[in-house]
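Continuing the batch. This is chain 6 of the set; chains 1 through 5 are on the previous pages. Same settings as before, nothing changed between runs. Recording input and output for traceability.
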Amino acid sequence: MALATLLAALGTHALRGRMSAAQFDIFMTATRYQFLYSLGLLGVGLAAREVAPALLRWAAVLLLVGIALFCTTLYAVAFGAPRSLGPVTALGGLLLIAGWLFFAVAMWRARAR
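Output for chain 6:
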């Protein structure tokens, strides 16, 4: 979350005007997603104190790798990398979805007990 905050501040104060509007929008989208998913990851960690740790560990790993792939490729595209990185961004998105599904299953199993 600290890195997302730092990058958002960097973008707002140092990069705005130095990037095209489209590049800046992609950059800020990456910071927004990084921040939101980092908060979610924190929630998974808090839930792991009470709920099936194995499923939540998988959820956390999938979310962490998903954040890294999704946001890093968006940052790269914002700085001029080829848009052909799109499949890597999509893979990151799929890992994020999988992470939330693992989280949901873990919570559902905990509630069923």
